[in-house]
Design brief:
The chain has 158 residues and is an alpha/beta fold. Helix content is 36%, strand content 20%. The protein has a five-stranded parallel sheet with strand order 1-5-4-2-3, with helices on both faces. Strand 2 (47-52), helix 2 and strand 3 (73-77) form a beta-alpha-beta unit. The mean pLDDT is 82. InterPro entries: Elp5. It is found in: Cytoplasm; Nucleus. GO terms for molecular function: tRNA binding.
Length: 158
């Protein structure tokens, strides 16, 4: 996975597809590697937005914060309330609101000129439970074509 893109290019994207129980471990490995690259200043991204659908935000905090500045990581919690019963902004059925929420959470990284952030979705399959395939493909395309996003990756169960 190449983090970063040249001007005028779409952000690179990687979807890890698994049919075995190893997918989450591979996703976590990529996630930890990306966070260490961001922390070391070796990434185009200024931070990482995690769309948490499969694990709680506390899982990612425990996994990633060891020796890393917590300001580099923002978590969009769609795990506890994916359908927006308590918080309508985080309704994964509404792809436009989900896209807006990702951008809103990532805004904090954009204080510098031409700063951008990476986006990781821990289980794209969860979004597919509630939204159509074309709308999820549109979400991924909109994320990739945003000039604020340096890379996109996620996990999908086959």
């Amino acid at each position: 996975l190449r983090d970063g893109c040249l001007e005028g290019e779409h952000a690179p994207a990687l979807i890890i597809e698994d049919s075995l129980p190893l997918g989450p471990s591979v996703f976590d490995h990529f996630l930890a590697n990306l966070v260490s690259q961001i922390a070391a200043g070796k990434s185009q991204a200024s931070g990482l937005v995690i769309v948490a659908l499969n694990q709680s935000p506390s899982f990612y905090i425990d996994l990633l914060v060891k020796g890393v500045d917590t300001l580099l990581i923002r978590i969009l919690d769609c795990y506890l309330d994916p359908l927006g019963w308590k918080n309508q902004v985080r309704n994964v059925r509404d792809i436009n609101k989900l896209l807006s929420s990702i951008h809103e959470v990532g805004k904090g990284f954009l204080g510098q000129d031409k700063a951008c952030f990476a986006v990781a979705t821990d289980l794209v399959s969860s979004v597919l439970r509630y939204a159509s395939l074309p709308s999820v493909a549109g979400l991924l395309n909109n994320l990739r074509s945003s000039d604020q996003i340096s890379s996109v990756f996620g996990l999908m169960h086959s």
